[in-house]
Amino acid sequence: MDRLFYIGVSAALFAAFAFSLNFVVPFIIGDYSTFDFALIRHVVSGLVGIYILFSEKRVVRHLTLRNCLQAIWLAFIGYVGYFLTVTGAAVFAGPVIAPAFLGLVPIVLMVIGNQRQGSLPWRSLMAPLALVLAGLILVNGTAFTAQGLNSVESLWVGVPLALAAVGLWVWFALTNQAALAARPEMPSGVWSALILVGGGVLMLAFYPVGAAMDLFQLPALGFGWNAAGNLYVWGASFALLATAGGVRAWNIASRSLPVALAAQLIVSETAFGVIGGLIVHARWPTPMEVAGVVVLIAGVVLSVRIFYARQFAPVRTLLAQE
């Protein structure tokens, strides 16, 4: 039981890191659009999913119409939709303000998750929640100052996109955990693969529509390696790490941890996102940002300790007495 708990914690932290990479995408793809990047990323991820499905034994019994449709829906909510809204928020609202709004995700998830599952008494969550809130305020303290607004293209577009990303991720996390709970016989790898394939199918289906709307730059800039090689390398790398790795890690965490704890762990996405933004813009963090990251980490560590003590320590004590 201890091992399963720590596997879940590690998986949630890795998923947070993987998802935070979305914040730096707009700043590494040159003249290509985020839609070009999403196409390459999700098609490669879909191919990875197909490989996983073919490598699993007795996978056919899981490939029902209901499972496939549910996986495509989850891919639309949590991966294609979330990716496009969060990268759009980074483009229009800048690499600091976008992570600031995404910091709302763990708060909303923790409240809804604990309300649904009753994992812990509310008084036990007050201390880690207070640390998380304080950390978010410190990390994002400069986001709306004159300095923080220098990289903002349009708050009127960026902020609604960031709020949409919050809603999509909360919706995905709750729906995905419910779907996994309703399918105890479904291997996590197969479920992750179905979602990956769903994301690839959705992006391929969207491409003709997006191309007609001039959302893709590939037709104009070229599909050849000389022109698009950088896009292919970054897209494939993110597909393997952020999408395929993130999906698998989050599904493992969803099966191993209560929603309220997973939500507290995913708050580290904000810290990773801010660090990535600082690297992209080649500057050192301010003392306030450093303090915010430290406080966020303290909140995450305290959450893990509280959940472990409340749910697993009594079991170990009972086993020791026997």
From TrEMBL:
TM stretches of this protein: 7-29, 35-54, 66-84, 90-113, 125-149, 155-174, 186-207, 227-247, 259-284, 290-308
Keywords: Membrane, Transmembrane, Transmembrane helix
Positions in coiled-coil regions: none
InterPro entries xrefs: EmrE-like
Record carries keyword Transmembrane: yes
Protein name as annotated: DMT family transporter
Organism field: Rhizobium redzepovicii
